[in-house]
Amino acid sequence: MSASHPVDVFDLGPEHEQVVFANDPGTGLKAVIAIHSTALGPALGGTRFHPYASTADAVADVLNLSRGMSYKAALAGLDLGGGKAVIIGDPRTAKSEPLLRAYGRHVQSLGGRYYTACDVGTNSSDMDVIARECSYVTGRTVAHGGAGDSSVLTAYGVFQGMRAAATVAWGGPSLEGRTVGVAGVGKVGHHLVRHLVEAGASVVVTDVDPAAVELVRSELPAVRVVESAEALVAGGLDVYAPCALGGALTDEVVEVLSARIVCGAANNQLAHPGIEKMLEERGILYAPDYCVNAGGLIQVADELEGFSFERAQQRAAAIFDTTLMVFELAASEGVPPAIAADRLAERRMREVSRLRGMWVPTR
Question: Domain Glutamate/phenylalanine/leucine/valine/L-tryptophan dehydrogenase C-terminal, which positions (predicted)?
Fold first, then answer.
């Protein structure tokens, strides 16, 4: 960015309704809140706390993530739009009560157009602190009437999506005897492994954090461990479940992947446009990430009605049917599932937006 080559901020996120830069020098808060769409209702999306190398990197991430939340909420059938926030800094050293409360005041200033929740670098206890200054917070602790750890239903939804993919690939939802490789066994991956083991699958895992691997192995000793994601994808798998960072499906990974199905919890798994076609050409059935990982969003959204785990779990179970719907549309229209999922989400946003337009708080 320079005086001779100024950047037009409207070119940064041309689809977005609103992008807010939040600054509080007293606490060190530097945050960006992006509201992609409120066609279906107020925007909901987590707050990511991360030491971005630059403000430009933070903006790029929040724009991409908030757009993804619009599609995730629409495909999940929720009356919510898509938003996201990022706080720039290392949460291990920069996070503090004053900073979180200052951030809460900025969210409050949006008057309910954006609801925040947990994401990478934040947790339910942080949401309780933010809520001391803000009415538009979900994903709070159980002690404060919240939904608690949203990774529980995120993993459950991915498991349901995987069963739907198995139905298409092998004629039935059972994963018994199938070899499933899980890359990333943090909170979501850990819960997913448990579902798979209980379903009779043979599970192979990897993670950059040795402690996460040991925790899984101590609880589920039948799980096998490999040293890296590269070793995992090169092995003989029936299902590959990326559950760590985005961009896991690169050209190199797709070229060597033996799995018949890819279905995981990670966001933005396709490294670049065109990967979805490569997967299809290789006969690999891809369950779109934002379709199958919507269980966490469903869980925190349910909190806005007064949280019921049973109700939220029933809604997350519907990810099985939604995933099948995506595969059916993909087959009928001759497109990869990733494009079919986008079409379904865009259709719902377009049809409802004709009735509502942009969501604004009521007096």
Answer: 148-357
Euclidean distance between CA atoms 59 and 20, whole angstroms: 10
**Which of 84, 95, 187, 277 is flagged as catalytic?**
84
Residues 199 and 104 in one domain: no
Please indicate, yes or no, whether residues 244 and 323 belong to a single structural domain of this protein: yes
Residue-wise pLDDT for 54-66, tens only, equals 999 999 999 999 9
Query: Which residue(s) pair with 202 in the sheet?
Result: 179
Structure tokens at 128: 């309780």
Instruction: Count Cβ neighbours within 10 Å for each residue of 286-311 and write b for 16 or more, e otherwise.
Output: bbbbbbbbbbbbbbbbbbbeebeeee
CATH number at residue 61: 3.40.50.10860
- Let me know whether 107 and 200 are in one domain: no
Has residue 179 got a pLDDT over 60?
yes
The pLDDT tens digits for 205-261 are 999 999 999 999 999 999 999 999 999 999 899 999 999 978 899 999 999 999 999
Residues 75 and 122 occupy one common structural domain: yes
8 Å CB contact between 135 and 108: yes
What separation in angstroms does the CA of 265 have from each of 56, 124, 221, 328? Answer: 26, 19, 22, 21
**Residue ranges making up the domain that contains 39:** 9-144
Active site residue 30: no
Q: Which tokens go with 114?
A: 């954006």
In a domain, 350, yes or no: no
**Is 1 part of a structural domain of the chain?**
no
Q: Check if the beta carbon of residue 241 is closer than 8 Å to that of residue 190.
A: no
C-alpha 248/C-alpha 271 separation (Å) is 6
Q: How many CB atoms lie within 10 A of CB 275?
A: 20
Instruction: Give the CATH number for residue 247.
Output: 3.40.50.720
| Average pLDDT over every residue of 153-168 | 98
Task: Characterize 41-50 residue by residue with b for buried, 16 or more Cβ atoms within 10 angstroms of its Cβ, and e for exposed.
Answer: bbbbbbbbbb
Instruction: Give backbone dihedrals phi and psi of 31, rounded to 5 degrees, phi first.
Output: -140, 155
Count of structural domains within the chain: 2
